[in-house]
Design goal:
GO terms for molecular function: oxidoreductase activity. This is Oxidoreductase. Keywords: Oxidoreductase. Belongs to the short-chain dehydrogenases/reductases (SDR) family. This protein has a single domain, classed as 3-Layer(aba) Sandwich (Rossmann fold), CATH 3.40.50.720. Helix content is about 50%, strand content about 15%. The chain is built from 9 helices and 9 strands. Strand 4, helix 4 and strand 5 form a beta-alpha-beta unit. Helix 3 runs parallel beside helix 4 and helix 4 packs parallel to helix 5. The N and C termini lie far apart (about 40 Å).
Length: about 260
């Protein structure tokens, strides 16, 4: 797929992975719309990055997603790429009796439900285009859990399965919509790195954000089904042979590093 003169929506586009991809998409000659919960943050990003378009939206709220869909349909009817990136991570101890149900499911609402809501709301618009694409950002942690953030891994595994099912439904309908799952490892410039010991992260599992953008763009251009970036490729291969051993060893290592 050629990534020029496209109209691209990037959820969670005000920081981290989303912002980095949004800037690259813009540099490549595309119309780029970013979303985030904070209107103030969006205004600041747009002011500092001429050309970016900002729309405040909460992907975990169906009503907010519906409103976003209406605005995009009216103002950007040529939307042909969705980059589903919005996500949060919470560390917590399941044995901690002060942790609420709302806290342990917040990641489901944003990471998984948000991806599903945005996709469902905008599929009719994508289906009108000659060619379109949906990129769902999952994670290394879709393949193996991080014990300190148990719900996060569950949401990323859910995104993986949803992406596969979505791809097959699109194929059955005969629509020219590509679905790519982007699976980053730990990215050193994002908040997720707080979950890991810095020395371990830097030596073994991290990937610079610029490299993730490079391999992600290349995968999109080649209509890849899945892009396993950096250490994710190693872990995905290893899990084919000793999944239980690796899960236990990995989980205990991360718990001890915090």
């Amino acid at each position: 797929m050629k990534l020029k003169n496209r109209t691209i929506l990037v959820t969670g586009g005000t920081s981290g992975i989303g912002f980095a991809f949004a800037k690259r998409f813009l540099d490549m000659g595309n119309t780029v719309i970013i979303t985030g919960r904070s209107q103030q943050r969006i205004d600041q990003i747009v002011k500092n990055n001429p050309g970016l378009i900002g729309m405040a939206a909460d992907v975990s709220d169906p009503k907010s997603v519906e409103q976003l869909s209406k605005e995009l349909t009216i103002h950007y009817p040529k939307l042909d790429i969705i980059f589903n990136n919005a996500g949060i991570i919470h560390e917590f101890d399941l044995f901690d009796e002060t942790i609420t149900f709302e806290h342990i499911t917040a990641e489901i609402a944003t990471n998984l439900n948000g991806t599903i809501y945005i996709t469902k709301a905008l599929l009719p618009l994508l289906a009108k285009q000659q060619e379109a694409m949906i990129v769902n950002v999952s994670s290394l942690l879709a393949n193996i859990t991080v014990a300190n953030a148990p719900t996060y891994s569950a949401t990323k595994a859910g995104i993986h399965m949803f992406s596969d099912a979505l791809r097959e439904q699109i194929r059955a309908k005969g629509k020219n919509i590509h679905v790519m799952e982007l699976c980053p490892p730990v990215i050193s410039e994002t908040n997720l790195t707080d979950t890991f010991d810095e020395g371990f992260m830097n030596k073994v599992i991290s990937l610079p954000l610029a490299k993730l953008v490079k391999v992600g763009i290349k995968g999109m251009e080649k209509n890849k089904i899945r892009v396993n970036a950096g250490f994710t490729k190693v872990m995905r291969f290893s899990m084919k042979f000793a999944p239980d051993f690796i899960t236990h060893t990995w989980g205990q290592m991360l718990l001890k590093s915090n």
